[in-house]
Amino acid sequence: MSRLLEEYNNQIKLSLKSKLGLKNIFEVPKLKKIILNIGVGDAKDDSKILDKALQDLTLISGQKAVKTKSKKAISGFKIREGIPLGVKVTLRNKIMYEFLDRLVNIAIPRIRDFRGLNMKSFDGNGNFSMGIKEHVIFPEINFDKVDKINGMDITICTSAKNNSDALELLKSFNMPFKDNEVN
Predict the structure, then answer these.
(1) How many CA atoms lie within 13 A of 101 on its CB side?
(2) What DSSP character marks residue 74?
């Protein structure tokens, strides 16, 4: 069992129950899944870039990533329908907690000029999304073997009913938020 999952079950659940004023322990919000996505627009010209992004995302997540294809043709960008343009992976259960632990304690502190995560990145249903400009902040990536630095989207889905409950859940996992108002 991962360290963060044990901490959630033994300490965070109980503190969140009292902090949010919930009557039942099963009402306490929890993580459902974490989705990692790398969009590679240059893959329309060179498929090797997409294969490298697939390898990198598989290394970062510890789980096999899959290619995503364009849903419709966009002539302005010279994109045809059905060509691979990105990679994604959905993490659940133990591997999700291990990834979140590495994200919070190792990767986010390596971001240059980091001032905290924006609290306005919640969607209203308790899910949080963030973007990373450089995927090389993860220690699994060997910087010398990187051809192209890609951005990455991370979406954390929770069972929280609203943004404030999800914010408390993520803060209890030591996510570094800016000190500003949540909508």
Answers:
(1) 14
(2) B
Question: Given its phi and psi angles, is residue 174 left (phi above 0), alpha (psi -120 to 50 degrees) or beta?
Answer: left
Q: For residue range 106-154, list pLDDT tens digits in order.
A: 888 778 777 778 888 888 888 888 888 887 777 777 776 777 788 889 8
Q: Which residues contact 145 (CB under 8 A, 6 or more apart)?
A: none
E strand map for the chain: 31-39, 66-69, 84-91, 128-132, 152-158
pTM higher than 0.70: yes
Q: Which helix (H) or strand (E) holds 49?
A: helix 47-61
Token pair of 159 as six digits: 């069972």
- Nearest of 28, 39, 38 to residue 126 by alpha carbon: 28
